[in-house]
Fold:
Amino acid sequence: MLSGYLLADHQNVEFGRVSRRDFLRGAAIVAGAATAGPLLSVRAAGAEDALAVAAAGTDDIWLGPDFWANRLQDWVLRNGQITCVATDSTNRRGRTASVLTRSLTGGRFNFKIRMGTEVQGTGFSGFLIGTGEAGTDYRRAALVGAASGSAGGLFCVYGSDGRVVFREHTDDLDQFTYAEIPATSTGPAPPRFKDEQVELSLDGRRTPGGTLTLTLKAVHATTKALLSQAVVTGRSAASVAGGFALVSSGSTATYWFKNLRTGGAGVRLNPERALGPIMGSLFSVANGTLKMTAQVMPMLLQPNDSVSLQLADGFGGWTTRTSAPVGPGFAAALRATNWNGTTSQPYRLLHSRGGTFEGTIPAEPGSAGMTIASLSCTKATHRAVDTATRYTPLVPGEQALGLYTSKNVYFPFEKLIGNMKAQAPDLLLAMGDQYYEHNPTQKDESTAPELDFLYKYLLWLWSFRDITRNTPCLVLVDDHDVFQGNLFGEGGKPLQAGGKVNQGGYLNDPEFINTVQRVQCGHNPDPVDPAPVAQGITVYFTRFTYGGVRLALLEDRKFKSGGDGLDDAGNPIPEADLQLLGPRQEAMLADLAAEGSGPPTVVVSQTMYACVQTSTSGRKLAVRDPAGWPPMARARALASMAAAGAVLLSGDTHLPALVRHADGPIQFSGPAGAATFVRWFEPMASLLTNPGPTPYTGDFTDGFGNPLRVLAVANMHVDQATWVAAYDNHDCGDQDLKEEGYGLLRIDGGRRRYTFESWRWDVDPTAAGAAPMPGWPYVLSFDDA
Structure:
């Protein structure tokens, strides 16, 4: 049975919304002088256990390791009951708490749960069964929201009108009708009320013909008197098989649940899928110092909650190397100096109240070289799961994207990750836009959307943690990471009230920005100049050496002048005063350049240092979002990189491209992992001289006058004019039409050369004939960098 910890009786804990102050201090709502007990559950429920069992009085914002809440901010444990606390007064539809450690095979099964009304109104509560396609990753099946769509499952629910019904959740065209499925109904069906005590059961029995008969019944929890029953026949095994979830849905109503019990040969136990309390890890090693972030599931913290880094002692035991408190963003910042990087070291993270997470810190690569994998722009889904979206394709060859199929739900990116792991990278670069603020659910429009950020970020970490637990990972945050469509950071200043993003500044609270950076970048090597910028926003730009390679991490958004080129009074800023990296980062690059071009050197930045994109008619563009603007500041930065003999890696643009800046280094802008907004580089013939061997390569001058040579580029398979004529936008979700995936930089110290590769997400690099995208690989000697 799940164990729980109790908050002191005198506490007044409001769960409708976790306050900004509590979140930013790690939601440290503590039990006064009470002794910290065990976590709500540090293990999945076993075969004989019920799920959703917690001691009366237990309050938390984590439902326990058996569940994934869609969304985090919509569900809490209140008085031991899993409770929907969606705050939108007019839309509380389709909130789900997916069960991770159970799945349905299509055989005989039975469910039983206690539930009741939390906020009275119009709606329903109960089960959602059969989510996800056959054979899909269980995490994809767990990401299910209010919108109906293919592989969305079947609602088996008890309505506020007192009737139990079966409702459709697979309609991609009429996504919120939740059409009632004909069934045989019995029982008095009195309307639901606030203090009700209801037991809902669902029984699935196989018939001789192989179909299932489903019986859904609501009874009084104590007297067992029938309230309502519905029976539906002829359901296919495939329509029942898959994931399942608890659901609270209504225009105004919300509901609570407890004591979920499952049984039957058609229920598969999956205890290995339990999630938390430690969600994952990120780490780096530089100059003899290990830094690691241990990410904990959002939960109410006790005063002494901490995470310890333990190292294998070689005799089957563990020795604690260091510990750190769980702080803002529910992250523990671990640090170990005098790190021995000559050998690999198995480790585990141990939560102070139970729960572990294991991995291996590899030995630092030697002078022979290393492989660096680059990743950016990983959107969880194309179509959102909580709002109506387009389904019917308009372009020949485009596929319909069933809402809960792998065509639409890219998360958890299992093919991309499997193929990337097959390349055995020594270092991973996550270069920004790890998630998108409007996806997979609508954006929380508050200025401190902490749980919404964590909901979306944890989907990324849940996906990539099996790489990051064993591979050093350097992380940059980009505009979408801080919940902005574009970011001209202006040295940390706030965006003027009612202003547009191109005026410059941060839209959200500085405490929120710092929490995002602490969670994602806190494990990066120490910044070289750590003084915060305006509003106390922290910085993380730095340079260091790893595996004999000099690396520099840049922040090309934080210091950048507003895209309107105007000061606060509305006057034009002289071009010489416009900033890209700002004086402090320029000074860091100048120091790097002063060291000369000896060892291999890699500079990592968010975006392309030119505008490598064109219009529907093939004309050059002058978009100020990339780092091609402002030109003078760009030129200063590139000159230092060239003097250091560096190569430049970036992401952001959703257009794989390799360019040689005429006034700077080679830059590789890797492909998006999975994005929506498409950019094209299809210049008219007169704009591209001295053409290269593959389409749209050659010498080019962008809309700001920046000269470069395009060495390789991978456009979408449908030209821009055709796509925009059909949709009047740049949004495409069909990955088969796009060149998406990951980048590789292979550094060969023996041959003194770099090799750049751009790989599709779905290409198995171990397969016969496997090759990167056309135009790659590209080999560059150290001497020509």
In short: The longest strand covers residues 109-119. Residues 1-37 have pLDDT under 50 and may be disordered. The first helix runs from residue 20 to 24. The chain has three domains: 43-273, 278-361, 369-784.
